[in-house]
UniProtKB/TrEMBL annotation:
Stored InterPro entries: GLR_AS (IPR011767), Glutaredoxin2_C (IPR007494), Glutathione-S-Trfase_C_sf (IPR036282), Glutathione_S-Trfase_N (IPR004045), Thioredoxin-like_sf (IPR036249)
Domain GST N-terminal: 18-88
Residue span(s) of domain Glutaredoxin 2 C-terminal: 106-236
SUPFAM superfamilies for the chain: GST C-terminal domain-like, Thioredoxin-like
Protein name: Glutaredoxin 2
Length: 238
């Protein structure tokens, strides 16, 4: 597997601040880009039941939230808007690291078809995992309440059916692996918004103990994780 090659380090004063949940794929989009652009920043994990902090920053409970001028400066929500801002602003390194998204209908179709078993596998595990947004029981309960599952709706029932859901996803992973161009970028035209959208969703799968990513997928996930300094969930897979 190739070694990530990053642009020159960007260290601003004050450092930008990013508010996230660790499990949130939209938050990982921004963390991914900041890592790929080699930008030093403050990373703040909010409790999942913290309404006060995000509301004070942007008027509602939402993550990610980015403060490009650090704590106390103006704040911006919406993951792709943040990514576009950062990648187009020369303060954050040379603009244009990411190429435009392409119509990856093949990947989108695969994700749509496997969305339900992946959701049932990941949500029940996130609610049990030792993640910073779930340090307190009230935060875990808030997550479960705000992320209901259709019948069966009980998280314990879904966890008990893990083997069924793992099989459904495992049987289709080789198909997805064939859609990945290389560890460095999923589409042939280079590093792009395709990767910003795909990597967080694949990282989520690593929370599932017993789900084995094919070599091509595993190399892609590990390369992107190393480049952006975003740990995968092998250490706490359930």
């Amino acid at each position: 597997m190739p070694t990530p090659s990053l642009p020159p380090r960007v260290v601003l004063s004050p450092l930008p601040t990013l508010y996230v949940y660790d499990h949130c794929p939209f938050c990982v989009r921004v963390r991914h880009l900041l890592g790929l652009k080699n930008i030093k920043y403050n990373l703040v994990f909010l409790a999942n039941d913290d309404v006060t902090t995000p509301t004070a920053l942007v008027g509602r409970k939402v993550v990610p939230i980015f403060q490009p001028q650090g704590t106390g400066g103006p704040a911006q929500p919406e993951s792709l808007d943040i990514c576009k801002h950062v990648d187009n602003d020369p303060r954050f390194g040379a603009p244009g690291l990411l190429k435009s998204a392409t119509p990856r209908d093949d990947i989108a179709k695969w994700m749509d078809e496997l969305a339900m078993p992946m959701r049932r596998l990941s949500r029940v595990r996130f609610s049990r995992a030792p993640l910073p947004e779930f340090v307190f029981q009230e935060a875990r309960e808030t997550y479960i309440r705000n992320h209901p599952l259709s019948d069966p709706g009980d998280y314990e029932d879904n966890f008990d059916r893990s083997t069924e859901y793992i099989t459904q996803v495992q049987e289709r992973l080789d198909e997805l692996a064939e859609m990945i161009y290389s560890p460095e970028h999923c589409s042939p035209h280079g590093l792009s918004y395709d990767d910003i959208v795909l990597f967080p969703r694949l990282r989520t799968l690593t929370i599932v103990k017993g789900l084995v990513l094919p070599k091509r997928l595993r190399e892609y996930v590990e390369f992107q994780a190393a480049a952006a300094e975003i740990p995968v969930y092998d250490y706490c897979a359930i």
